Amino acid sequence: MTQESAVRTSKYIKPAREEKIFEKTVVFFLFSLFVMPQYFGLPTPLFDFTLLRMMLILVLFMIIYDDERKVAFADLILHSRLTLVLLPYMFVLLYTMVLRADINAFLNPFLEILSFYLLIYVIHNVLGVEKTVRYLLGFLYLMTILGVVEYAMGRSPFSYLETIKGIYTGRFIRSGNYRIMSSCTHSLGYGLLLVAVAPLSCFDYRKNEVNLLCRPILFLLLLINVFLTGSRSTLSVFLVETLLLFILSSGTNKKKCILAGIVLVAGIAAFLVVFYRTGIAQYILLQFASILDSILGTQYSVLFGGNTEALSSSSNYRDQLKYIFQVKWLNPILGIGRKRSFTSEINGSYIESIDNFYIAEYVRYAYPGLVTYVFFLLFHLGGMIKKCIMDGKAVYKILLVGAGCYAVNLFWVDSLQTLKYLYIIFALYLCQYTEDGRSAEADSGSKYIRSRVNKWR
Fold this sequence. Notes:
By secondary structure, this protein is mainly α. The chain has a domain at 21-252 and 364-429. It has helices at 2-10, 16-34, 51-65, 67-78, 81-100, 104-127, 129-153, 187-197, 216-229, 232-248, 251-274, 279-296, 308-321, 357-390, 394-409, 419-444, 447-453; strands spanning 41-42, 49-50, 172-174, 177-179, 203-204, 209-210, 344-346, 349-351. The strands form four sheets. A two-stranded antiparallel ribbon has the order 1-2. It has a two-stranded antiparallel sheet with strand order 3-4. Strands 5-6 form a two-stranded antiparallel sheet. The chain is globular and about 65 Å long.
């Protein structure tokens, strides 16, 4: 009888080895999502199996194969407020795909959203928020070190992994200087990545506080990488991000940051004076001068090799973007999808690319797509703001700064296949919210709290 009972019980107990294999698979999924380039995988005539897509399929298979995991994942999808928020956007994707005969209009965003759900599941059920953050910081160290190596090489080390043609865009040069892109397809995309996850380097999980000096080497590497992207918008947003993190720091940490900031500025100033005529010094000065020119309408960047015609053209281009909403051949209800490229003459200027995610989303999915996606963003950002006010935990402040600055940066660039980094931030937020709710439930035993937790926000 005892033996029978033991056998019966063992059906519901997973072997430790199986759980370890699943956890290692999950970590590699996270690595493939965060680090590996989209152009690494197996090309096929109908569908490119990138490494991320292969890992996504593998993790899904391991979830579906196990009854307990399958029920938990289905419960997440079916009983989450997130699903209700996403349903209108998914409906827009679906009818755009059908009416425009464009499979990618649905497939690409769907795979990103599926990855988002998987992130929530694996962080909540396998890794936990703290361990996930530790992994992400390790990945960030790797990428920022490789960013410095890339600048020295004049080519991304990830480019040697290109197995799927047509995605890797090659080297980017501005004013004679190479712009790093890491594993992204564009230097602006790498800038978005850095903006989204940089605040994690300032999160002291054990002390539950924001501290710019928590990981000084990583923060310095992030700063160097931001400069080397050659992106004015990235540098501007990163500086604002740093200021916000400084404001959110405690009084003691603020004093240390001020002292470290003085030393850093003095060090940079000394470097620029000593190596003024070198390419790297001119490049750094060009970034600062370009930002000043954008704000003040000056032409200081010319002193450091900037192209006034290019800057003027860029400024005029951005002025014309807002008139895309008035282009008559665009349908305000049905977007053009992703297969068809946008080209139009606006006020005498030809616009062929759209460096503004929100305007690009309007072109792809019209007003319904833009409104429903912005609502999805506000759902998370609003929740983070609420938790910062009510809870005051450092983790919510860190995640809010990263997600908020990323969303702001999208006014100057398209997403460039980097929404997955925003979804990592959102997944961490939702899982931390749920962990806090479970702790409160354990402390109070309240049925009301339990019902709130099960709704996943």
